[in-house]
Specification:
β5 (45-52) and β6 form a beta hairpin. The protein starts with a strand and ends with a strand. The protein contains no helices and seven strands. 20% of the residues are buried. 0% of the residues lie in helices and 62% in strands.
Length: 71
């Protein structure tokens, strides 16, 4: 599995969006230090999986804030 993590702790939390644009609804936040499995990469966006109140949710995170890592 491939994963992403937040690139810099200056961005402690990064918004995760419902769609591939930052004006769409925010579905949650990615936290620095955590790893998130990604399902797809499209242009400047990764489709990631994260857990929100015990539910696994899909959402898009901007690639400028993350780097790919081994899961």
């Amino acid at each position: 599995l491939e994963a992403v993590t937040i690139r810099s702790k200056e961005n402690n939390k990064v918004n995760v969006y419902k769609e591939k644009n930052s004006s769409s609804d925010v579905v949650g936040q990615a936290v620095y230090g955590e790893k998130y499995t990604f399902l797809d990469k499209e242009q400047d966006w990764y489709l990631i999986l994260f857990t929100d109140k015990k539910d696994t949710v899909e959402g898009y995170i901007n690639s400028q804030f993350v780097k790919e890592v081994e899961y």
